[in-house]
Amino acid sequence: MRLLLVEDDNHVAAALSAVLARHGFEVTHARSGEEALQALVPEGNGFGVVLLDLGLPDQDGYEVCGKIRKRTSTPVIMVTARSDVRSRIHGLNLGADDYVVKPYDTGELLARIHAVSRRTVQEDAGTGGEGVLRLGAVHIELHTRQVSVDGSVVQLTRKEFDLLALLAQRPGVVFRREQIISEVWRTSWEGTGRTLEVHVASLRAKLRMPALIETVRGVGYRLVSPVS
């Protein structure tokens, strides 16, 4: 996923960009509000998420958020040191999709990025009338929970489908093991790791595409989009 990081502190931006890159994001760094707005032309310019720090040198961050929302529907996550409820409400009213208060945990930030991008994919699928994710020969029907490969239906368990759909909504993006367990099993990581490994192995076998789900050592898994 391409991510636009709007942050005027180069040291903070460099450190965060390195973390995001390790998790599969392609990061573009904008140092000012104007630079961010130019990067989003035309119509979002392919970015999946905008991570917007409110402390910018040239414009008020809230003002930048409002301008972004007028130009594109790309999800915006505000990052700020302001923790009061009024500031959060103001940001959301301007069109922000989420709000992270400094200092934040990197794991939480990654989870929020995935959450807002996933909601956008689900909304787009629903409004499109099909709700189908197409990944080469693999077709995933979100509404009917049916998966087919080369036109042949593949029988999956509920958790196998949930796992595949989660990864398929952002091909190439690395999902942390903890996040997958939280999203699919609605529980904590402790004691559930082996279950995840078994489900990944089962999906690879049932789909007859061992390379479709890639293990990212020490982090988690990502779906490698096959060639159509």
Q: What does this protein look like?
A:
The chain is of the alpha/beta class and 228 residues long. The protein folds into two domains: 2-117, Response regulator (Rossmann fold), CATH 3.40.50.2300; 132-223, Winged helix-like DNA-binding domain superfamily/Winged helix DNA-binding domain (Arc Repressor Mutant, subunit A, Orthogonal Bundle). It has eight helices and twelve strands. It has a five-stranded parallel β-sheet, sandwiched between helices. The protein has a four-stranded antiparallel β-sheet with strand order 6-7-8-9, with helices on one face. Helix 6 packs across helix 8 (193-207). The longest helix is centred in the middle third of the chain and has 22 residues, at 106-127. It is elongated. The protein starts with a strand and ends in a 5-residue tail after the last strand. Residues 125-129 have low confidence and may be disordered. Residues 2-117 form the Response regulatory domain. Residues 130-225 bind DNA. It comes from Streptomyces regalis. The modification 4-aspartylphosphate is found at residue 53. Keywords: DNA-binding, Phosphoprotein, Transcription, Transcription regulation, Two-component regulatory system.
- In percent, how helical is the residue content? 40-55%
Low-confidence stretches: 125-129
Output mean pLDDT: 85
What is the β-strand count? 12
- Per the CATH scheme, the topology name of the largest domain is Rossmann fold
Largest sheet: 5 strands, parallel
Strand line-up across the major sheet: 2-1-3-4-5
Question: Which CATH class of the largest domain is shown?
Answer: Alpha Beta
Counting DSSP H or I runs of 4 or more residues, the number of helices is 8
Order of helices and strands: EHEHEHEHEHEEEEHEHHEE
- Roughly what fraction of the amino acids lie in strands? 15-25%
From the alpha carbons, calculate the radius of gyration and give it in angstroms: 19 Å
Number of domains: 2
CATH architecture label name of the largest domain: 3-Layer(aba) Sandwich
